[in-house]
Amino acid sequence: MAVRVFKPATTVKGKLLxxxxxxxxxxxxxxxxxxxxxxxxxxANYNREFVIDKSGAVPINLANQLKIQLSTLGTIGERNSSGxxxxxxxxxxxxxxxxxxxxxxxxxxxxxxxxxxxxxxxxIPTCSNCTRTF
Length: 134
Hints:
It is a single chain. With 134 residues, the chain is an alpha+beta fold. The chain contains four helices and six strands; from the N terminus they run E-H-E-E-H-H-E-E-E-H. The longest helix has 21 residues, at 13-33. It is globular, with a radius of gyration of 14 Å. The two termini are 25 Å apart.
């Protein structure tokens, strides 16, 4: 499934979170119906540009800002000392189109919703790689 970019009309902070959560829920439900269960699904946003994506392969056109930040953790695409694969998280995949579209941004300027496991809709905590990257 392709990455989806949303630009909602409302800018009320509380409502933006609700919109993100609803979009994540619908995105995850599509995967549930297909019996596909990625580890996590998340919504990244910057300046009313929203991207929802799932964990998976490292993006092909990885934004330069992400390459720099992720390479400090180890080799991109391989496990580091924390046991997580570098660059395969939903945070990286969701923020990548935003950072490619806005090359002046720092990774810390992208905001995220909570991450959810589509199989159970359980909230998932941020991994140490993403905590250090974003």
